[in-house]
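ugh ok so i messed up the first submission bc i forgot one of the chains. this is the corrected input, ALL of the components this time, i swear. 1417 residues overall. if the numbers dont match what u have on ur side tell me asap before i send this to the collaborators (the ones from the other lab, u know who)
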Amino acid sequence: MPGKLKVKIVAGRHLPVMDRASDLTDAFVEVKFGNTTFKTDVYLKSLNPQWNSEWFKFEVDDEDLQDEPLQITVLDHDTYSANDAIGKVYIDIDPLLYSEAATVISGWFPIYDTIHGIRGEINVVVKVDLFNDLNRFRQSSCGVKFFCTTSIPKCYRAVIIHGFVEELVVNEDPEYQWIDRIRTPRASNEARQRLISLMSGELQRKIGLKVLEMRGNAVVGYLQCFDLEGESGLVVRAIGTACTLDKLSSPAAFLPACSSPSKEMKESPLVHPPSHGCRSTHNSPIHTATGSRLTQNFSVSVPTLIYTGMGSGSAGKEGGPFKALLRQQTQSALEQRGGSPHRFCRRREFPFFTLTAFPPGFLVHVGGVVSARSVKLLDRIHNPDEPETRDAWWAEIRQEIKSHAKALGCHAVVGYSESTSICEEVCILSASGTAAVLNPRFLQDGTMEGCLEQRLEENLPAGCGFCHIPYDELNMPFPAHLTYCYNCRKQKVPDVLFTTIDLPIDATVIGKGCLIQARLCRLKKKAQAEANATAISNLLPFMEYEVHTQLMNKLKLKGMNALFGLRIQITVGENMLMGLASATGVYLAALPTPGGIQIAGKTPNDGSYEQHISHMQKKINDTIAKNKELYEISPPDISEEIIGSPIPEPRQRSRLLRSQSESSDEVTELDLSHGKKDAFVLEIDDTDAMEDVHSLLTDVPPPSGFYSCNTEIMPGINNWTSEIQMFTSVRVIRLSSLNLTNQALNKNFNDLCENLLKSLYFKLRSMIPCCLCHVNFTVSLPEDELIQVTVTAVAITFDKNQALQTAKTHVEKSLQRASTDNEELLQFPLELCSDSLPSHPFPPAKEHLESASSNSGIPAAQRATSVDYSSFADRCSSWIELIKLKAQTIRRGSIKTTVTVEKASPMGEGNFRNRSTPPCANSTVGVVKMTPLSFIPGAKITKYLGIINMFFIRETTSLREEGGVSGFLHAFIAEVFAMVRAHVAALGGNAVVSYIMKQCVFMENPNKNQAQCLINVSGDAVVFVRESELEVVSTQQPTTNCPPSCAGGEVTT
Amino acid sequence: MTSELDIFVGNTTLIDEDVYRLWLDGYSVSDAVALRVRSGILEQTGATAAVLQSDTMDHYRTFHMLERLLHAPPKLLHQLIFQIPPSRQALLIERYYAFDEAFVREVLGKKLSKGTKKDLDDISTKTGITLKSCRRQFDNFKRVFKVVEEMRGSLVDNIQQHFLLSDRLARDYAAIVFFANNRFETGKKKLQYLSFGDFAYCAELMIQNWTLGAVGEAPTHPDSQVDDMDVDLDKEFLQDLKELKMLVADKDLLDLHKSLVCTALRGKLGVFSEMEANFKNLSRGLVNVAAKLTHNKDVRDLFVDLVEKFVEPCRSDHWPLSDVRLFLNQYSASVHSLDGFRHQALWDRYMGTLRGCLLRLYHD
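and heres the new structure output, hopefully the right one now
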């Protein structure tokens, strides 16, 4: 009996009227955990019942604690008939199971009903007493921490990064069980919600066990997904990166691990050997369907593409996916000849990492994007306890990814993710990541020892090392155009680099980045089963190829040479396939200047045609020039001879040259002759190609003052202010079925995405200057003629004046960035040790701090003043305060409840007495920030409280009355946000970071006036403190030693 | 290609003040879009009409969802669904409960019933305010009325607590509730020149001095069910007002009063002769208004009577406002020197308020 769960039901408020006669409600509460149920008394005739119950105690195994959600049901008592349910609250008690997270869950939770939505709130207190014999129970994995964040969480240090963990569990979907025909929609929805909650608990526990086996203590980059396979069942799967994390508590432990990047570099014994090359290819090995599988488990493995930059001038001329396929074949041949320079010496099956950002020095080289897809036919899962089929499917794909990485001369895959797209019985499984060479020092001992041997004792050049090719130049499996690195001049780099990870902090970037999207639709005949799967798998390589071409074209059009955060989503529908690739384009200083795009016509004799072509060419050139100006891309001008020279120039000379060019402020003009040299040739040989060129030019840049990217941070902007706005936007369009051609489809889809972006820019115009970060598009095809696009992103304001300042030379910028990063890393231990170790030698850090603050130029106070409301509003809020105070003193009933809220909220007074008027002190409801990023600008995360992973279903049979589909979904998403915020607040947190809406499945039947929607969200609940407040605390209390854990402890007690 | 669904949900609810105003003013989405286009927003932002349409729809949907909460503003503060900064919450509430001068003049003093609600069509046509907006304003009046009608304590405080309105707006609502409860006639033609502000001013004075709440703890019968202390006029006080009748009924008293006033004002008043000539009429008018207040019907006509019996006669003689003030001050004060008159306190309670009202009502 290793745990005791204690629950207290305090009160309810804003309950719905359940008795029409009295306009009141006789509410009571059922508290259920596992098979045990407790009930409160009935609180008669009130919409604001005060139950103030005893502590309900559940004595349970910790295995159950991990799997089961606490289920709280609010009901209306009825003497003569069955009690009516008002709604439910599911509370995941997992955060209470590890010592460093929350110690109590206490607060107001929205009471949720799948038919009516939120109906009032209930105040609940939950505690867990764990007994100390946890280790005996091998079925549970209490104590393993989970993070959605795809980097090492801010207040931790990675001791060892163990590697990939994955697990999946399957079950029958309650919605498709026979009993569903006789039960109410509400019962069916609740069964589903409960089952998924249970399954994700189980999944998390199982992953935790694997982590313990690996001797880790945490999972970072935890990504859990649901596959609603319909008739064939429900799959919950998760991947993550097992780590051993150390809480940063003493500066001594902190410093050696990841202090300044430059220092790290110097210490690092790792340099890539000269034999390494870099690789950029769009490479597609096709595995044809194996006949044996066709019988029961139909499976088609789809050509996989390895992206990197395309060789210069190649795409158009070589044309066609067939060439790519050919290339792939040669690649595999090469691979067999022993292309991989590394001897693999691995203990883990898959050297994958779901992380997208790394401790400095961790990432040595990046090869390129590797991805694999396979089309499967779903069949009923016969035995839920043996999910072997699904496991095998994923194992296959992962194997493929691994071999692609190997072909790129890499021993690891970073920024790894998996996804599915399901339509009826066809399922596309996709996996992608970035092939990379990692510094073995961080990995589990001996995992990658093979690579270590090859390293030379030489310093890695800062800011460009990761660009250097990891593969063998002579055995390149695809044609790539290599040059010597423009930064260090010593190693080879590809002309273009694609990755799925975030931009490394130490990367040297010129100008700003921008969101680049490739969008594509392909019609497909409706077909059944195998025929359908075959048709899809035949289409896939063409789509991948075209998506890649589009990305490449758009990248060149922007005058940039690298993509980060690349995410390609292929969605399957009844009669079409959609491809959407999003990435953030940047100009890496280490890579060569991209050539222009050159258009070549097929019929050179036709005069008017020629003219047309040259007109197009001019337009393209203009666009490139405009984009370069827009994104402030002014790379140092390096003379031809150096570029062309096969011999590496002496280091000093190149450096000299660079510094000269850097000091010149002139924007390099677009040189056409230069463009000719390694321009990207687009051949216009048919109308399709024409369309492509046109579509290239239709993408409108965001209005001035707006930037967008899909990575964590925007390259070139580092002066964020504290105002953030996370949002979700959903659009569904209906295609007219008459003229469904590929072109029309493409145009519709393109317009849909572009209009959506335009709407976002308009809506958020008050935040200018601002940047949309982590823009995440999801496409689904809910019905024949419907396309649904869901976007989640965060808008962050930044300081314009400082932006100008940063637009100097890139070297200075990178320095600044490095130093701000140092500030981030160092400030904390500094404060901690300030008095306990007053004489601690810390000169470099202080210097960094100072330089950082002087660099950032703007005083902290100025940065903090973000929200500027009209004076009218200010007055309003002040008197509203007064009134509330009065109201509280008058109505004693309400005082009690407000007090509880404040206690639960970390923003309550007691924690930081010195802070300047906290924003939420004005309101009884504490503000909870939500962001898809792993950080909060201008603030420091002091504590991770646990993972938030919630699944909701909402259904309506009165769609019109609820404002149609838009009204229905708008309300539902607002409710989901509210429930996430309430859970975070109850844990004692004030923000969710790494928030993601993983699923938003919307189905409607307007004829029946019905609609249903499923939403799955996750993120990390955290406590953050504004940096300005931290400073206040540290300056005003110089004599008290206050470790962060203690500060966090205060919050929840 | 048609948009089936198009939504935007922020973690912090976006409130566009301009769109909120259009929504409050009762414009349909398409009208609002047209108005926004006309404001030049497209040129400023480079947006398209489609974007504007979608944005407006979004805001309207949000406001529609918020409206339920705005009906009970404390709910807006405690609800969890919309995360809105406190200053924005205050703005939402304040604007929602704001009303149009033209509209309030039409409904002021009318019974807030279904019957009046049916007349909103006419009011809308007459004032040019959209029917939707009229309905919102009317419903606001009625909602506030229903909540505070039966409540003890200060009317303004009650309104502030239950609707979280600013002090100014709460006072206005107190006036509206007070007028609605006492059904003062404000719509007569001769009252058209008066603004809502004039009436609200009078209402405040009357609430302060003429209601049960004004007396304090309702001391005479502490256990009686006098709930609406601020809303109802003090019946006892109104009964007592009959006693003032002797000021005009008693010929000697009236003459004495007149001579006291005239002596004091001689040389100080530009319209002295007119005053002297009219004194008895004016005094009779003022005292008779007091004496009649026992009947509900006459209470309702209070303002009509004041204008007829005092404002109009003075105005026809072109009294300047300063003279009216001098006269009224002297008129009230001189009563203290009337030895035969015993109801000094009563007179002060009546005249103090009436003087304030008359001075406010006396303008063109």
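quick check: The mean pLDDT of chain A is 71. that seems consistent at least. DSSP finds 24 helices and 35 strands in chain A.
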